[in-house]
Specification:
The protein is mainly alpha-helical and about 110 residues long. It has helices at about 10-30, 45-55, 65-70, 75, 90-100, 100-110; strands spanning about 1-5, 5-10. β1 and β2 form a beta hairpin.
Length: about 110
């Protein structure tokens, strides 16, 4: 990834990754209603869900592990996620994911294709 005049330039592999993630994870989870009060939203719901899903697929088994994964992959995640406040804390992952209706999350998963 290179920055030229403020614009991020992705290599072909990064372009493919962004395209795949945009068509699958980002698309299917953007319709989920954010349960948080607007003034408390520092991290987007799509970013939280995407990081959590990718972390779990990579073997993370709890909220601390999800946060650790996010921090380890932050430069890669920034290529396709808007995370101006960095990676959410494990407490944020737990609070937000715990407040989403399981049925809504399941429906989004069932509609997802990769």
């Amino acid at each position: 990834m290179k920055k030229g005049f403020g614009k991020v330039v992705l290599n072909p592999q990064e372009q493919r990754e962004v395209k795949i993630l945009s068509k699958s994870v980002l698309k299917h989870f953007q319709a989920i209603q954010d349960p948080r009060v607007e003034r408390t939203r520092h991290h987007s719901l799509v970013a939280i869900l995407t990081i959590a899903i990718l972390a779990v697929l990579s073997g993370s088994d709890g909220f601390i592990a999800i946060e650790t994964y996010g921090k380890a992959k932050q430069s890669w995640l920034e290529k396709f996620l808007d995370i101006p406040y960095g990676i959410p804390s494990h407490d944020t992952f737990g609070r937000v994911l715990g407040s989403i209706e399981p049925q809504v999350l399941q429906e989004s998963f069932l509609g997802m294709t990769i």
